[in-house]
Amino acid sequence: MVGAEDPETFFETAPPLRDADAVRTKLQEFNARNSIISAGGVDRRPTVCVTSGGTTVPLEQRCVRYIDNFSSGHRGAASTEYFLKAGYAVIFLHRRGSCQPYCRFLPDDSFLKFLDVNEESKVQVAESHQTAVKESIWDYCKVGYGGGSLLKLQFTTIFEYLQLLRMVATSVSTVGQRGMFYLAAAVSDFYVPWDSMAKHKIQSAGGPPEMRLSQVPKMLAVLRDQWAPLAFCVSFKLETNSDILVQKADMALNKYKMNIVVANLLATYKEQVIIVTNGARNTVRRRNSDEDLEEQIIKLLAQKHSKYICGSQMDATRVQTEL
Ligand code: 9Z3
Fold it and tell me: Three-state DSSP class for 194?
């Protein structure tokens, strides 16, 4: 196996994030905006990091070609809307160009179909889409931007994604148990380490390239043990074979000490998921074509997270009483 399987080496050899300072500032401002000053001191709104879309694996340092995956970012974008509705502050860590909250119909459908031109040659929202557009704008302004409770950060490559996730995790760790990770991004399992990557475009004259991929280090373990040990962690498990899905989800739950693993199959992931917790499996199905499956998922997760926060507060009170 070539290159880094261990997280330290991955970060040491990755090309540094170009806008790391700006991201740090955005995270600090976001934290300040979402602190609630009350009589008892400074309190913090529950905060979730939603990861969304797929990471790419560049094959050349001056990248012309890369390995990609199918994820559209729809799940992450829809989930972000429901987290905001549930009162969470959301860090939406997403793939550049993927689906966005409140405009999930883009980029597949042209926005032009929502518009028409009236008799005075003025552009207006088409009558048939008035209600949908109005509702989206209201939600977008109210929870998304007006309240400052949505922070969007973008990645393309696996290098950018993991460096951003580490920064976000360190920041979310400041809210302790009130923090949640909802890891819906489809993250590459294999990559070409930066220092063994071709510098320039691989030439076809050299014949079919031979390259050996390395395993991307398992950052879920590092997230749980080091970056944000108190946070409520929800990871996703995607498989194509239904025979191994739940077993693999169970393994992830135990190995990475996740609070919940959401298991889904490529063939049915838009229709149903299995919520796997320690000792329980709960299938959540989309009830009709007008409903988002994510609405039910987030409702369930917010309840479980709230219990988790209460449980830890009760533990803290018990310790204080015993002292
Ligand atoms: C998922 O399983 C998501 O539900 C989907 C959403 C990627 C299927 P879309 O973005 O699709 O709405 O088009 N995400 C996690 C996939 C993943 O890479 N999981 C890893 C694994 O299965 C663990 S981190 O090993």
Answer: helix
185 contacts 54 by C-beta, under 8 angstroms: yes
Alpha-carbon gap, residue 134 to 292, rounded angstroms: 19
Question: Is the N-terminal amide bond of 58 cis, ω within 30° of 0?
Answer: no
Joined tokens for residue 72: 């559209």
Note the pLDDT tens digit of each residue in 143-167: 656 568 999 999 999 999 999 999 9
What CATH number labels 2-103+144-230? 3.40.50.10300
Q: What is the pLDDT of residue 47?
A: 97
* Residues within a 6 A CB radius of ligand 1: 71-75, 183-184, 186-187, 235-238, 264, 269
Per domain, the residue ranges of the chain are 2-103+144-230
Tell me how far the alpha carbon of residue 70 lies from the centroid of ligand 1, in angstroms: 9
Q: What spacing in Å lies between the alpha carbon of 238 and ligand 1's midpoint?
A: 5
